[in-house]
Amino acid sequence: MSEQTAKKPISLPLKILIAMVLGAALGFVIGEKASYIQFIGDVFIRLLKMCIYPLIFVSIINGISQVADMSRLKKVGGYFLVYWAIASTLAASMGLIWAFIIKPGVGINLGSKEVPVVDVDLLQSLVNWVPNNPFAASRKEHPPDHRICAYLRIYPSPHSRTQNMARGSSTCSIHSTSSSRV
Question: In sequence order, what E strands does the chain have?
Fold first, then answer.
């Protein structure tokens, strides 16, 4: 094949646009039955959210480490704090303004003490195992999230010290949750 007849590859933004149009068309054609595959999109979005926090953290650390002049770092840090304060104040103000405008909760009767019927959805429970935030999941507040994060990293096992002491070793081994010894 000559260079003139070779096909040009489709760019990523165009692929994304095509996928969005096909997904919308499929949702329009299938209708309510599209909710059966909603868990795939939910897991995908949760995985993306799980990657965002470490990416931002590493980007900030990398940016700080690249600054050689401490006065420049101080100036950038000051700008960041001012930006953060202004953005937080604007967000809180907008929230309060909209709360006064739409008055959420007006007309809701909270006096009933009926026990709600809990409907357990196995598929949603499995989707919830993928954490949005790996840092929050690693605090062991949400055991399923912690297990998923544990598969993605290696950390010291609480039993490693006693196992090593039984073998006569004074150092701690590093264990992964998916294997007994690394």
Answer: 155-156, 174-175
